[in-house]
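Worked Example 4.2. Consider the chain below.
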Amino acid sequence: MESFERNWYVLHTYSGYENKVKANLESRAQSMGMGDYIFRVVVPEETEKEVKNGKEKEIVHKTFPGYVLVEMVMTDESWYIVRNTPGVTGFVGSHGAGSKPAPLLQEEINHILRTIGMSTRQSDLDVAVGDTVQIIEGAFAGMEGQVTEVDEERQKLKVAVEMFGRETSAELDFDQVDSL
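Applying the procedure from the previous section yields the following structure tokens:
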């Protein structure tokens, strides 16, 4: 029985190949026409400031070395394509012998995505600069604001909100607003 629900799964990869697996998987999803089954591929990373020889520099660490997250609809075909992507050694939570893996729980993936500054759900929000949106979550919930900036890549937007007679800019995730 195949479910056509989008879920997040964890892939085990050769350590150091996480970004290569991400690139391979994204290009395979495109070239094999699996764009409706394989969505976001994420290598969770954190940036830390480190002082070395008196100079401050930013160093990017993989949050989970050897693992890549993939948002996908689990079908026989999508499972086969992902599993056979170069650098992928398997799915975490699969019991082998062709069994399908268990997806991450929504709370788990939301926590990971928020930690790395990504939106927690892929949104089909269709807004442009100048549009008015209703804020549905967060500190400005219940207010309306005007979109001043849209960042499709990070799934974030800046909204001008009027508070106490002044205009304030708020950076929000796509899933924190509804278009009007």
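The helical segments are 18-31, 76-83, 106-115. The first strand starts at residue 6 and ends at 13. Compare this with Example 4.1 before moving on.
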